[in-house]
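Help wanted!
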Amino acid sequence: MTRIPFNRAARIGKEFEYIQQAIAEMHLSGDGPFTQKCHAELEKLIGAPKALLTTSCTHALEMSALLLDIQPGDEVILPDFTFVSTVNAFVLRGARPIFADVRADTLNLDESQLERHITSRTKAIIVVHYAGVGCEMDAILEIANRHNIPIVEDNAHGLFGSYKGKPLGSFGALATQSFHETKNITCGEGGALIINDSSLIERAEIIREKGTNRSRFFRGQVDKYTWVDIGSSYLPSEILAAYLFAQLECWQEIQEKRTTIWNHYQQELQPWAEERSVHLPSVPVYCNQPSHMFYMLMPSLEERQALIAHLKSQDIYAVFHYLPLHLSDMGLKFGGKAGDCPVTEAISDRLVRLPLFYEMSNDDQGRVIDAIKTFNNWRQGE
Ligand SMILES: Cc1ncc(COP(=O)(O)O)c(C=O)c1O
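Answered by r_m:
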Protein backbone atom coordinates (compact mmCIF):
# COMPACT_ATOMS: atom_id res chain seq x y z
CA MET A 1 0.00 0.00 0.00
CA THR A 2 1.54 3.32 -1.00
CA ARG A 3 1.45 6.42 1.13
CA ILE A 4 -1.15 9.03 0.21
CA PRO A 5 0.22 12.39 1.29
CA PHE A 6 -2.00 15.30 2.20
CA ASN A 7 -0.45 17.37 -0.57
CA ARG A 8 1.98 17.04 -3.41
CA ALA A 9 2.89 20.13 -5.42
CA ALA A 10 1.62 20.11 -9.01
CA ARG A 11 4.23 19.51 -11.72
CA ILE A 12 2.99 20.47 -15.10
CA GLY A 13 6.07 19.67 -17.22
CA LYS A 14 7.53 22.94 -18.45
CA GLU A 15 9.00 24.07 -15.12
CA PHE A 16 12.53 22.80 -15.87
CA GLU A 17 12.50 24.19 -19.39
CA TYR A 18 11.56 27.67 -18.21
CA ILE A 19 14.06 27.62 -15.35
CA GLN A 20 16.76 26.60 -17.83
CA GLN A 21 15.66 29.46 -20.06
CA ALA A 22 15.95 31.93 -17.18
CA ILE A 23 19.45 30.64 -16.46
CA ALA A 24 20.45 30.76 -20.13
CA GLU A 25 19.27 34.36 -20.38
CA MET A 26 21.20 35.15 -17.20
CA HIS A 27 18.42 37.14 -15.70
CA LEU A 28 18.21 35.62 -12.26
CA SER A 29 17.18 38.55 -10.11
CA GLY A 30 13.56 39.68 -9.98
CA ASP A 31 11.32 41.47 -12.45
CA GLY A 32 12.67 39.80 -15.59
CA PRO A 33 10.61 38.42 -18.50
CA PHE A 34 9.01 35.55 -16.55
CA THR A 35 7.95 37.86 -13.73
CA GLN A 36 6.36 40.20 -16.30
CA LYS A 37 4.49 37.27 -17.86
CA CYS A 38 3.20 36.18 -14.44
CA HIS A 39 2.04 39.73 -13.73
CA ALA A 40 0.15 39.89 -17.02
CA GLU A 41 -1.49 36.50 -16.45
CA LEU A 42 -2.60 37.39 -12.92
CA GLU A 43 -3.93 40.78 -14.03
CA LYS A 44 -5.95 39.01 -16.73
CA LEU A 45 -7.24 36.28 -14.42
CA ILE A 46 -8.32 38.67 -11.67
CA GLY A 47 -9.16 41.65 -13.85
CA ALA A 48 -6.90 43.86 -11.76
CA PRO A 49 -4.98 46.94 -12.89
CA LYS A 50 -1.77 45.67 -11.30
CA ALA A 51 -0.28 42.44 -9.94
CA LEU A 52 3.18 42.25 -8.39
CA LEU A 53 4.85 38.95 -7.57
CA THR A 54 6.14 38.72 -4.02
CA THR A 55 8.19 36.18 -2.12
CA SER A 56 5.07 34.97 -0.27
CA CYS A 57 1.47 35.82 0.57
CA THR A 58 2.80 36.76 4.00
CA HIS A 59 5.00 39.40 2.36
CA ALA A 60 2.13 40.64 0.19
CA LEU A 61 0.16 41.10 3.43
CA GLU A 62 3.10 42.98 4.96
CA MET A 63 3.20 45.21 1.89
CA SER A 64 -0.54 45.84 2.34
CA ALA A 65 0.03 47.00 5.92
CA LEU A 66 2.80 49.33 4.75
CA LEU A 67 0.71 50.67 1.87
CA LEU A 68 -2.24 51.40 4.14
CA ASP A 69 0.11 53.23 6.52
CA ILE A 70 -0.89 51.13 9.50
CA GLN A 71 0.49 52.79 12.63
CA PRO A 72 0.86 51.68 16.26
CA GLY A 73 -2.53 51.71 17.94
CA ASP A 74 -4.53 51.36 14.69
CA GLU A 75 -7.09 48.59 14.68
CA VAL A 76 -7.57 46.03 11.94
CA ILE A 77 -10.55 43.69 11.84
CA LEU A 78 -9.97 40.17 10.58
CA PRO A 79 -11.55 36.73 10.92
CA ASP A 80 -10.50 34.75 13.96
CA PHE A 81 -10.27 31.61 11.85
CA THR A 82 -7.28 32.16 9.59
CA PHE A 83 -3.57 31.62 9.17
CA VAL A 84 -1.24 33.64 11.42
CA SER A 85 0.15 35.73 8.56
CA THR A 86 -3.22 37.45 8.07
CA VAL A 87 -2.77 39.03 11.49
CA ASN A 88 1.00 39.11 11.90
CA ALA A 89 1.55 41.38 8.91
CA PHE A 90 -0.50 44.10 10.60
CA VAL A 91 0.71 43.46 14.14
CA LEU A 92 4.26 43.95 12.81
CA ARG A 93 3.27 47.58 12.11
CA GLY A 94 1.95 47.96 15.65
CA ALA A 95 -1.73 47.36 14.88
CA ARG A 96 -4.15 45.96 17.39
CA PRO A 97 -6.00 42.98 15.87
CA ILE A 98 -9.75 42.78 16.34
CA PHE A 99 -10.89 39.22 15.85
CA ALA A 100 -14.32 38.81 14.28
CA ASP A 101 -16.10 35.49 14.46
CA VAL A 102 -16.87 33.49 11.32
CA ARG A 103 -20.08 32.16 9.81
CA ALA A 104 -20.88 28.57 10.75
CA ASP A 105 -21.60 27.64 7.11
CA THR A 106 -18.73 29.03 5.00
CA LEU A 107 -16.30 29.70 7.88
CA ASN A 108 -15.81 33.20 6.42
CA LEU A 109 -15.87 36.43 8.41
CA ASP A 110 -19.43 36.86 9.65
CA GLU A 111 -20.59 40.08 7.99
CA SER A 112 -23.32 40.48 10.62
CA GLN A 113 -20.57 40.80 13.28
CA LEU A 114 -18.48 43.30 11.34
CA GLU A 115 -20.00 46.65 12.11
CA ARG A 116 -19.95 46.29 15.87
CA HIS A 117 -16.15 45.96 15.73
CA ILE A 118 -15.64 49.23 13.85
CA THR A 119 -14.26 52.17 15.84
CA SER A 120 -12.62 55.47 14.94
CA ARG A 121 -9.30 53.61 15.07
CA THR A 122 -10.24 50.95 12.49
CA LYS A 123 -7.82 51.29 9.57
CA ALA A 124 -8.46 48.12 7.58
CA ILE A 125 -10.78 45.16 7.25
CA ILE A 126 -9.07 41.94 6.19
CA VAL A 127 -11.27 39.26 4.70
CA VAL A 128 -10.19 35.68 3.99
CA HIS A 129 -12.10 33.68 1.38
CA TYR A 130 -11.80 30.44 3.28
CA ALA A 131 -11.26 27.45 0.98
CA GLY A 132 -11.77 29.90 -1.89
CA VAL A 133 -15.47 30.37 -1.12
CA GLY A 134 -16.22 34.08 -1.41
CA CYS A 135 -17.09 36.10 1.69
CA GLU A 136 -20.39 38.01 1.64
CA MET A 137 -18.76 40.82 -0.29
CA ASP A 138 -21.91 42.87 -1.01
CA ALA A 139 -22.60 43.33 2.69
CA ILE A 140 -18.93 43.74 3.63
CA LEU A 141 -18.28 46.34 0.92
CA GLU A 142 -21.40 48.25 1.89
CA ILE A 143 -20.23 48.51 5.51
CA ALA A 144 -16.59 49.25 4.61
CA ASN A 145 -17.54 51.94 2.07
CA ARG A 146 -19.97 53.59 4.47
CA HIS A 147 -17.17 53.87 7.05
CA ASN A 148 -14.52 54.61 4.43
CA ILE A 149 -12.31 51.71 5.53
CA PRO A 150 -10.14 49.90 2.96
CA ILE A 151 -10.52 46.16 2.48
CA VAL A 152 -7.64 43.75 2.01
CA GLU A 153 -8.60 40.35 0.63
CA ASP A 154 -6.34 37.59 1.88
CA ASN A 155 -6.99 35.47 -1.19
CA ALA A 156 -4.40 32.80 -0.38
CA HIS A 157 -6.98 30.08 -1.10
CA GLY A 158 -9.10 31.85 -3.66
CA LEU A 159 -7.33 32.20 -7.01
CA PHE A 160 -9.90 31.19 -9.71
CA GLY A 161 -12.79 31.57 -7.27
CA SER A 162 -15.56 34.10 -7.86
CA TYR A 163 -18.40 35.80 -6.02
CA LYS A 164 -21.47 36.74 -8.08
CA GLY A 165 -19.41 36.35 -11.24
CA LYS A 166 -16.54 38.61 -10.14
CA PRO A 167 -13.11 37.07 -9.44
CA LEU A 168 -11.97 36.86 -5.85
CA GLY A 169 -9.05 39.22 -5.44
CA SER A 170 -10.81 41.99 -7.35
CA PHE A 171 -12.90 43.39 -4.47
CA GLY A 172 -10.44 44.92 -2.01
CA ALA A 173 -8.21 47.95 -2.49
CA LEU A 174 -5.55 45.25 -2.17
CA ALA A 175 -5.58 41.46 -2.36
CA THR A 176 -2.90 38.90 -1.67
CA GLN A 177 -2.21 35.53 -3.32
CA SER A 178 -0.14 32.58 -2.19
CA PHE A 179 1.90 30.25 -4.38
CA HIS A 180 3.12 28.14 -1.49
CA GLU A 181 3.57 24.45 -2.25
CA THR A 182 0.13 23.67 -0.79
CA LYS A 183 -1.72 25.98 -3.22
CA ASN A 184 -3.32 25.10 -6.57
CA ILE A 185 -0.61 26.99 -8.48
CA THR A 186 2.81 27.03 -6.90
CA CYS A 187 6.49 27.88 -7.11
CA GLY A 188 7.32 26.44 -3.69
CA GLU A 189 7.28 29.71 -1.80
CA GLY A 190 5.75 32.73 -3.49
CA GLY A 191 2.88 35.14 -3.60
CA ALA A 192 1.47 38.23 -5.25
CA LEU A 193 0.03 41.55 -4.30
CA ILE A 194 -3.01 42.52 -6.36
CA ILE A 195 -3.57 46.26 -6.46
CA ASN A 196 -7.11 47.28 -7.37
CA ASP A 197 -6.79 50.84 -6.09
CA SER A 198 -4.60 52.34 -8.79
CA SER A 199 -3.49 55.18 -6.54
CA LEU A 200 -1.45 52.62 -4.56
CA ILE A 201 0.48 51.17 -7.51
CA GLU A 202 3.47 53.48 -7.58
CA ARG A 203 4.10 53.24 -3.84
CA ALA A 204 3.67 49.44 -3.98
CA GLU A 205 6.49 49.24 -6.53
CA ILE A 206 8.68 51.36 -4.27
CA ILE A 207 7.95 49.35 -1.11
CA ARG A 208 8.66 46.11 -2.97
CA GLU A 209 12.00 47.47 -4.22
CA LYS A 210 13.59 48.35 -0.86
CA GLY A 211 11.99 51.78 -0.70
CA THR A 212 13.59 52.91 -3.95
CA ASN A 213 12.14 54.15 -7.24
CA ARG A 214 14.08 51.48 -9.12
CA SER A 215 11.00 50.31 -11.07
CA ARG A 216 10.62 53.80 -12.54
CA PHE A 217 14.33 53.84 -13.32
CA PHE A 218 14.08 50.54 -15.25
CA ARG A 219 11.16 51.96 -17.23
CA GLY A 220 13.30 55.01 -18.11
CA GLN A 221 11.02 57.36 -16.17
CA VAL A 222 13.85 58.71 -13.98
CA ASP A 223 17.56 58.84 -14.79
CA LYS A 224 18.78 57.50 -11.45
CA TYR A 225 17.16 55.64 -8.63
CA THR A 226 17.31 56.49 -4.98
CA TRP A 227 15.77 55.92 -1.56
CA VAL A 228 12.33 57.54 -1.53
CA ASP A 229 10.24 55.69 1.09
CA ILE A 230 10.32 52.83 3.56
CA GLY A 231 10.33 49.39 2.00
CA SER A 232 11.94 46.00 1.91
CA SER A 233 12.89 43.29 -0.57
CA TYR A 234 9.70 41.53 -1.59
CA LEU A 235 10.39 40.46 -5.16
CA PRO A 236 11.16 36.85 -6.03
CA SER A 237 13.94 35.70 -8.33
CA GLU A 238 13.27 34.89 -11.99
CA ILE A 239 13.94 31.22 -11.21
CA LEU A 240 10.79 31.15 -9.10
CA ALA A 241 8.86 33.22 -11.61
CA ALA A 242 9.87 30.78 -14.37
CA TYR A 243 8.52 27.87 -12.33
CA LEU A 244 5.35 29.78 -11.54
CA PHE A 245 4.74 30.80 -15.11
CA ALA A 246 4.90 27.17 -16.27
CA GLN A 247 2.00 26.52 -13.90
CA LEU A 248 0.02 29.68 -14.58
CA GLU A 249 0.16 28.94 -18.28
CA CYS A 250 -1.57 25.60 -17.67
CA TRP A 251 -3.98 26.69 -14.98
CA GLN A 252 -7.03 25.18 -16.71
CA GLU A 253 -5.45 21.73 -16.69
CA ILE A 254 -4.68 22.00 -12.98
CA GLN A 255 -8.12 23.35 -12.17
CA GLU A 256 -9.96 20.69 -14.19
CA LYS A 257 -8.15 17.92 -12.36
CA ARG A 258 -8.69 19.44 -8.93
CA THR A 259 -12.35 20.12 -9.67
CA THR A 260 -12.91 16.49 -10.67
CA ILE A 261 -11.35 15.34 -7.40
CA TRP A 262 -13.30 17.87 -5.31
CA ASN A 263 -16.63 16.95 -6.94
CA HIS A 264 -15.93 13.26 -6.52
CA TYR A 265 -15.30 13.70 -2.79
CA GLN A 266 -18.53 15.62 -2.47
CA GLN A 267 -20.67 13.14 -4.40
CA GLU A 268 -19.21 10.12 -2.68
CA LEU A 269 -19.21 11.50 0.85
CA GLN A 270 -22.46 13.48 0.89
CA PRO A 271 -24.84 10.62 1.85
CA TRP A 272 -22.38 9.24 4.40
CA ALA A 273 -21.92 12.70 5.91
CA GLU A 274 -25.62 13.48 6.09
CA GLU A 275 -26.33 10.34 8.06
CA ARG A 276 -23.65 11.18 10.61
CA SER A 277 -24.00 14.93 11.15
CA VAL A 278 -20.72 15.51 9.37
CA HIS A 279 -20.69 18.81 7.45
CA LEU A 280 -19.12 19.08 4.03
CA PRO A 281 -18.13 22.47 2.57
CA SER A 282 -21.03 24.83 2.07
CA VAL A 283 -20.83 26.84 -1.17
CA PRO A 284 -23.48 29.51 -1.84
CA VAL A 285 -24.96 29.23 -5.36
CA TYR A 286 -23.48 32.61 -6.33
CA CYS A 287 -19.93 31.50 -5.44
CA ASN A 288 -17.59 29.49 -7.63
CA GLN A 289 -15.05 27.77 -5.46
CA PRO A 290 -11.64 26.88 -6.93
CA SER A 291 -11.31 23.35 -5.50
CA HIS A 292 -8.46 24.40 -3.29
CA MET A 293 -9.57 22.47 -0.26
CA PHE A 294 -11.96 19.68 0.65
CA TYR A 295 -12.73 19.69 4.33
CA MET A 296 -15.21 18.02 6.66
CA LEU A 297 -16.54 19.22 10.00
CA MET A 298 -16.78 16.19 12.25
CA PRO A 299 -19.29 16.08 15.11
CA SER A 300 -16.57 16.38 17.79
CA LEU A 301 -12.85 16.79 18.42
CA GLU A 302 -12.61 13.14 19.49
CA GLU A 303 -14.12 11.93 16.22
CA ARG A 304 -11.90 14.28 14.21
CA GLN A 305 -8.78 12.96 15.93
CA ALA A 306 -9.96 9.37 15.61
CA LEU A 307 -10.62 9.82 11.89
CA ILE A 308 -7.15 11.29 11.32
CA ALA A 309 -5.61 8.37 13.25
CA HIS A 310 -7.74 5.85 11.33
CA LEU A 311 -6.62 7.30 7.98
CA LYS A 312 -3.01 7.37 9.15
CA SER A 313 -3.21 3.68 10.01
CA GLN A 314 -3.91 3.17 6.29
CA ASP A 315 -1.03 5.45 5.27
CA ILE A 316 -3.36 8.31 4.35
CA TYR A 317 -2.48 11.75 5.64
CA ALA A 318 -5.29 14.15 6.51
CA VAL A 319 -4.63 17.34 8.46
CA PHE A 320 -6.42 20.06 10.40
CA HIS A 321 -5.86 23.79 10.88
CA TYR A 322 -6.38 26.75 12.23
CA LEU A 323 -6.51 27.21 15.99
CA PRO A 324 -8.61 30.22 17.05
CA LEU A 325 -6.29 33.22 16.84
CA HIS A 326 -7.76 34.96 19.88
CA LEU A 327 -6.81 31.98 22.06
CA SER A 328 -3.25 31.64 20.73
CA ASP A 329 -0.37 32.86 22.94
CA MET A 330 -0.30 36.11 20.98
CA GLY A 331 -4.08 36.42 20.85
CA LEU A 332 -4.26 36.16 24.64
CA LYS A 333 -1.75 39.02 24.91
CA PHE A 334 -4.19 41.11 22.89
CA GLY A 335 -6.92 40.31 25.41
CA GLY A 336 -8.50 37.26 23.76
CA LYS A 337 -10.83 35.27 26.03
CA ALA A 338 -12.63 31.96 25.68
CA GLY A 339 -16.11 32.66 24.35
CA ASP A 340 -15.12 35.72 22.27
CA CYS A 341 -15.59 33.89 18.98
CA PRO A 342 -17.87 30.94 19.70
CA VAL A 343 -18.22 29.70 16.13
CA THR A 344 -14.46 29.60 15.53
CA GLU A 345 -13.99 27.89 18.89
CA ALA A 346 -16.58 25.27 17.96
CA ILE A 347 -15.43 24.49 14.42
CA SER A 348 -11.67 24.63 14.74
CA ASP A 349 -11.62 21.45 16.83
CA ARG A 350 -13.75 19.58 14.32
CA LEU A 351 -12.26 20.41 10.94
CA VAL A 352 -10.29 17.89 8.92
CA ARG A 353 -8.82 18.46 5.43
CA LEU A 354 -8.61 15.55 3.02
CA PRO A 355 -5.75 14.87 0.59
CA LEU A 356 -6.32 16.79 -2.64
CA PHE A 357 -3.58 17.36 -5.21
CA TYR A 358 -3.11 17.51 -8.95
CA GLU A 359 -1.41 14.15 -9.31
CA MET A 360 -3.86 12.28 -7.10
CA SER A 361 -4.99 9.14 -8.93
CA ASN A 362 -8.55 7.79 -9.02
CA ASP A 363 -7.35 4.74 -7.11
CA ASP A 364 -5.80 6.86 -4.38
CA GLN A 365 -8.93 8.93 -4.03
CA GLY A 366 -10.98 5.73 -3.92
CA ARG A 367 -8.77 4.53 -1.06
CA VAL A 368 -9.36 7.74 0.90
CA ILE A 369 -13.12 7.55 0.38
CA ASP A 370 -13.28 3.86 1.33
CA ALA A 371 -11.19 4.51 4.42
CA ILE A 372 -13.56 7.27 5.52
CA LYS A 373 -16.56 5.06 5.00
CA THR A 374 -15.01 2.27 7.05
CA PHE A 375 -14.27 4.74 9.80
CA ASN A 376 -17.96 4.79 10.48
CA ASN A 377 -18.03 1.02 10.97
CA TRP A 378 -15.00 1.24 13.19
CA ARG A 379 -16.75 3.88 15.28
CA GLN A 380 -19.63 1.56 15.82
CA GLY A 381 -17.24 -1.05 17.11
CA GLU A 382 -17.08 -3.34 14.07
C1 LIG B 1 -5.32 32.36 4.63
C2 LIG B 1 -3.83 32.37 4.45
N1 LIG B 1 -3.19 33.54 4.40
C3 LIG B 1 -1.86 33.61 4.25
C4 LIG B 1 -1.09 32.47 4.13
C5 LIG B 1 0.40 32.61 3.99
O1 LIG B 1 0.83 32.23 2.70
P1 LIG B 1 2.38 32.13 2.36
O2 LIG B 1 2.85 30.81 2.84
O3 LIG B 1 2.43 32.25 0.85
O4 LIG B 1 3.06 33.27 3.03
C6 LIG B 1 -1.71 31.23 4.18
C7 LIG B 1 -0.90 30.00 4.07
O5 LIG B 1 -1.33 28.94 3.82
C8 LIG B 1 -3.12 31.17 4.35
O6 LIG B 1 -3.75 29.98 4.43
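OP: Thanks! One thing I noticed: Residues 326 and 336 are 5 Å apart (CA to CA).
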